[in-house]
Amino acid sequence: MSVFQRLSMIFRSKANRALDSVEDPRETLDYSYQKQLELLQKVRRGVADVATSRKRVELQIQQLEQQSGKLESQGRAALTQGREDLAREALSRRSGLSQQIENLREQHANLQGEEQKLTMAAQRLQTKVDAFRTRKETIKATYTAAQAQTQISEAFSGISEEMGDVGMAVQRAEDKTAEMQARAGAVDELLASGALDDVTGTARDDIQSELDRMASTTSVEADLERMKRELGQGGGDSAPQIEGGNGAGNTGNREGA
């Protein structure tokens, strides 16, 4: 096989695949059925033409038979009047007509036989066309159902893929929601523990903070005074002396040193 033959085969195969992808079997069946109807119509026209020719021959035969009968009457009349020559002429013409009539009858028989053949062929073709039409409609219905099933299957496949994407999106949304809830709970705990100031509240503003600081300072001073009083009551005047003595002793010690 030459290179050109291989290329030609490749191109034909690609063209066939392209045609298969765009061909609709229903349209092909309808086209075939239309062609069969056209062929059937041609056969019927042929039958009609043959029948017309047969009828025309029948009319010619009838006319010639009428002429033949007239010539015989004329021959009889000529013999009655003693004109044998006229009678012979009339019979001679009648003889020629008889030959024509015979030829026309033979042609009529042939046309009649041809008409019968064409009529039977048209009937057989009609039967085949009707059977093809029934089969065509059955195939079209089956193809349409198969096409619908294929479309439904493809739709389900698309929905399945889309639902997979939706499931991932839902999972991400749930994870994000859970994360936000956890953060919100952590912020609430921090606010409750005081680690974060509640900027939205009114209890811990600047004035209240200062009042709290002053209250804390007053409490410290009160505790200090209390401790001084307690120490003064427990040691009398010895506490200052102890402090002084200790101081003097320490001084003396430092001087001796």
What does this structure look like?
This protein is mainly alpha-helical and 257 residues long. The chain has a domain at 36-144. Helix content is 91%, strand content 0%. It has helices at residues 3-22, 25-80, 84-193, 206-235, 238-256. It starts with a helix and ends with a helix. 4% of the residues are buried.
Secondary-structure-derived class:
mainly alpha
Arithmetic mean of pLDDT: 77
Overall, the morphology is: rod-shaped
- The percentage helix is over 70%
Query: What's the count of strands?
Result: 0
Q: What is the chain-wise order of helices and strands?
A: HHHHH
- Note the main sheet: none
Radius of gyration: 65 Å
Question: Runs with pLDDT <50, length 5+?
Answer: 234-257
Roughly how many Å apart are the termini?
Answer: 130 Å
Count of helical regions: 5
Tell me the β content: under 5%
Secondary structure elements and their pairing?
Layout: H1 3-22, H2 25-80, H3 84-193, H4 206-235, H5 238-256
Helix pairs in contact: 2-3
List key phrases describing it.
single chain, rod-shaped, mainly alpha, 257 residues
Nutshell version of this structure?
With 257 residues, this protein is mostly helical. The protein has helices at residues 3-22, 25-80, 84-193, 206-235, 238-256.
